[in-house]
Amino acid sequence: MNKAPGWYHAEGDPADTHRWWDGARWVGEPSPVDPQPHAHAVASAAPGAFPGAPPALGANGVAAHDRSPIDWMLLPLKRYAEFDGRSSRAEYWWFQLMYIGLVMVTVVPGLLLMETSGIGLVLVVLGFLVMLGLFIPGLAVSVRRLHDTDRSGGWIAIGMIPIINYIGSFVLLFFYATEGDRGRNQYGESPYAVGTRQPVPSGRF
């Protein structure tokens, strides 16, 4: 399909719906077409730009494609202990980058300075508190990332069981790097789904 980004009717969707085409693929779910004639003509309008179309929102009511890296880093903190729903690769990996960065600027210098300066102990303790505080949101975003690939959060166990945890860690790394389902799956709507304000709680781990 050689078209500019915009709202179009996608083959296979109901006749009275449009779906957002980003220039390479269909994004999100079909949206009801505004009954006003002009709505059919605004192919260049961004998601949510024409009357009657749902806003292009991802989890927590924020436009997924408009988020900055800082937004992605902080999103798991806003969803602190939320084990339902799904998380995109961007949400997972930006959070991991923040986590590693905080550890690198606290624990590593702290260990190096431990024997020569009292600030070393302070940094190590601070780093420990950071890791403790980020444990739950880190676990939750990992579960939601697995959900995005239509896998149970129980897969996390293979990275914790002795002996198999080394191989399991690589398996999990592959899962975390895998593109999520483009549409709805058993754990809720896609994090990029048009009109999705919140993940749909499924009660599944």
Note down, in words, how this protein is organized.
The protein is mainly alpha-helical and 205 residues long. The protein is 41% helix and 7% strand. The protein has 5 helices and 3 strands. The chain has helices spanning 37-41, 69-78, 89-113, 118-148, 165-177, and strands spanning 6-8, 17-21, 26-32. The chain has a 3-stranded antiparallel beta sheet with strand order 1-2-3, with no helix packed on it. β2 and β3 form a beta hairpin. α2 crosses α3 (89-113) and α3 runs antiparallel to α4. It is elongated, with a radius of gyration of 21 Å. The two termini are 38 Å apart.
* Bulk shape: elongated
Calculate the mean pLDDT score and round it.
78
Overall structural class, as computed from helix and strand content, comes to: mainly alpha
Tally of individual helices: 5
Strand content: 5-15%
Q: Report the count of strand segments.
A: 3
Note the quaternary state here.
Answer: single chain
Question: How would you spell out the order of helices and strands?
Answer: EEEHHHHH
Note poorly predicted spans: 35-63, 194-203
Radius of gyration: 21 Å
Strand order of the largest sheet: 1-2-3
Mind summarizing the main beta sheet? 3 strands, antiparallel
- The helix fraction, in percent, is 40-55%
| Alpha carbon gap, first and last residue | 38 Å
Describe the structure concisely.
This protein has 205 residues and is mainly alpha-helical.
Key structural traits:
205 residues; mainly alpha; 3-stranded antiparallel β-sheet; 5 helices; 3 strands; disordered C terminus
